Amino acid sequence: MTKLFSDKNKKGLTRDLIEALFPMFEAASAGAIAVDRQAHITWINVSYSHLLGIGDPATVIGKPVRQVIPQTRMPEVVETGKPLLLDIMEHNDQQLVVTRLPFYSEQGEIEGAVAFVLYDDLQPLTPLVSKYRRLHQDLAAARKALARKARGTRYSLGDFVGASPAALEVKRRARLAAGREMPVLLLGETGTGKEVLAQAIHSASARVDKPFVGVNVAAVPENLLEAEFFGVAPGAYTGADRRIREGKFQLANGGTLFLDEVGDMPLPLQAKLLRALQEGEIEPLGSNTVVSVDVRVIAATSRNLEVMIAEGEFRSDLYYRLNVLEIPIPPLRDRLADLGVLCEALLEDIRDGLELRGEITDAGVSALGGYDWPGNIRELRNVLERALTMGEDGSVLDADAIFKVLPRSSGNRPASSLMAQPVQLLSRTLAEAEAQAIEKALVASRGNRTRAAKLLGISRSVLYEKLGRLS
Ligand SMILES: Nc1ncnc2c1ncn2[C@@H]1O[C@H](COP(=O)(O)OP(=O)(O)OP(=O)(O)O)[C@@H](O)[C@H]1O
Question: Where in this chain does the record put each Sigma-54 factor interaction domain (predicted)?
Fold first, then answer.
């Protein structure tokens, strides 16, 4: 075959040859069509016309083939001169297996192409077709994931799950924010989806092809924050480091900078951030020159900035600069109506990594509604994950399975005694104990992570590292 279609043998596929083979192909196929060099239809048989839902074949003669069969690749065949021997083409919800061949003049010039529908009933090919569909879906998903990874985001607005009026209002504001360039301030307790939303706004904005750079202010040691934000000029410290180290502002240039836990920013840095936002210029550490940056800022905090302003811990001018569009994200306890859809979405995600059915009964969802969720959706995910891995058959979560893993602080039925729980790896038990201790500290501090870290006797950055592993 390859030789027949090689450049040297172009003449082998002349109009004469095609014409000689044509009656046989036409009789064996479910439809046939021919186009000229410009991919305009020159001939179509009655069976193909029927298949396409065309009453009179004469009405399509002379029309560009794409106008009649939008998914066809015949223009590509006349353009490249290469046959497409086997292809599955979608047309009006039908899948047709087609073959397309170019044909040449005696002088070796492309004259046009013919196509035959080999099968219009894919029943006998079901295994092949479902494999093709799966591969097609996998490819589309992989492409989407790659595109998101390239721009630094994983989430779009569809990933912010919720249909309650409160969740819909959040999405409405997020869409508004995506359409404008203004700074946005996301307010919400830990685990309510501030990062999900920040990424979603970026993904839906005009900056989508530019970087999304996130920095968690609370997780960076105070003495490194300035360098982290504004970068370091060559040799700024000891002279040993001769390279420029770019800060988050430079990395986010043209795109979006997400300032998570902006309420944890020390006052001197607040002044520098304000200047950067006002002037659109930054000064890398140890440099005397300013660099222009074009960055859209989305800030987030779980703290009450107005109280912080009153106590002199946050600059009011920076607050007004950041808070042009405010999006309060309600805690999960205030939108329990979303528990069902959230469980479905989270279980689907968890299931991906495990060989489990991973479903929850209505009674299971009701059991979740009795808890006050200080760790919000992050905690909900952890509870579902724990319930699934601890469940007897590991697949369907009913009320009992939920009660077994809900933390005691909620005033629910107490979790079953340790003795009733199966023996598991020590590392897993320790990790669960750690997760519970963190949750408890977050409950006690009502989500204030600086206080939670103090209660746990660890630094804020260590707490963030652990929370990152939990999410
Ligand atoms: N509305 C939502 N729909 C689906 N998943 C969500 C939603 N909100 C949060 N999540 C999930 O919960 C986890 C925590 O979300 P995220 O990190 O965005 O919260 P956060 O408010 O930024 O938390 P923190 O303040 O602790 O950084 C993630 O796994 C995220 O996928």
Answer: 160-389
This prediction has a pTM of: 0.61
Task: Tell me if 302 CB under 6 Å of ligand 1.
Answer: yes
- The CATH class that applies to domain 157-330 reads alpha beta
455/43 Cα distance (integer angstroms): 81
**Atom 24 (ligand 1): residue with closest C-alpha?**
190
* Contact yes or no for 113/29 (Cβ under 8 A): no
Tokens of residue 253, six digits: 């240039």
Q: Is the CB of 460 under 6 A from ligand 1?
A: no
Return d(Cα 394, Cα 383) in angstroms, integer.
14
The per-residue pLDDT for 144 is: 67
pLDDT of residue 240: 54
- In DSSP terms, 43 is beta-bridged to 34
For 336-470, CATH number out of 1.10.10.10, 3.40.630.30, 3.90.1300.10, 1.10.8.60 equals 1.10.8.60
Q: Is the CB of 373 under 6 A from ligand 1?
A: no
Q: Tell me the helices (H) and strands (E) count for the chain, helix number first.
A: 19, 14
Asked whether the predicted pLDDT for residue 350 surpasses 60, the reply is yes
Residue 193 CB less than 6 A away from ligand 1: yes
| DSSP strand pairing (94-104 vs 84-91) | antiparallel
Protein residue with least CA distance to atom 10, ligand 1: 193
